[in-house]
Amino acid sequence: MSIYDFNFHALDINQNMRSLEEFKGQVVLIVNTASKCGFTYQYEDLQKLYTRYKDKGFVVLGFPSNHFDDQEPGNNETIKTFCKVNYGVTFPMFSKLHVRDKEAHPLFNYLTAVKPFKGFNMSHPVSKLVVSIINEKFPHYMYGNSIKWNFTKFLLDRNGNVLHRFEATTDIIDIEKDIEALL
């Protein structure tokens, strides 16, 4: 089953309704993002990946969320400006939405059902800190397959099949080979 078997729509950062069908035939990296997170630096590498591979059929789709310790408090205009000014983001960004719990957008319910949580990369320098924060403030986040933190990434092939889930503690450079293999 592919992401394109569903009729997923979401508002983009400019409040235009977009369909994921628009990205059919491309390799897609879906990322839940935040502007005030310890992983926000990943915007820079996401933009580099997008710039490097967009002409080969690759796209990054950013989905801001304020689920994790209020690390995305701004409105869509603030988020858009932050991303453009600080990281030169030109890849498609969507309106702030919910990525977990009862209000989760159906897209993220689908992604997490297809690719369950398998743990954090504990060799990443901030893994222990992230796990400590989650265990202290949001222990229920560690149960189930839902999104655990900002900058969880899902890699889809050109047919919309979800092939990989990468947690926040997986740096962008570590998934580039997976993207290249699909291009």
UniProtKB/TrEMBL annotation:
InterPro entries: Glutathione_peroxidase (IPR000889), GPX_AS (IPR029759), Thioredoxin-like_sf (IPR036249), Thioredoxin_domain (IPR013766)
GO molecular function: peroxidase activity
Domain Thioredoxin: 1-183
Keyword Magnesium in annotation: no
Sorted UniProt keywords: Oxidoreductase, Peroxidase
Top-rank taxon: Bacteria
PROSITE patterns hit by this protein: GLUTATHIONE_PEROXID_1, GLUTATHIONE_PEROXID_3, THIOREDOXIN_2
UniProt record similarity statement: Belongs to the glutathione peroxidase family.
Name used for this protein in its record: Glutathione peroxidase
Biological source species: Ectobacillus antri
